[in-house]
Amino acid sequence: MAIPLAGDRGVYLARDFRSSSLGCSNADVVVLKAWTKPDDQECVSERAMYQIFQSASVSGVPKLIQSAQDDKCGIYGIALQRLGPTIEDLIQALPGHRLDEKLVLDLAIQM
Question: Is the pTM of this model over 0.70?
Answer without folding.
Answer: no
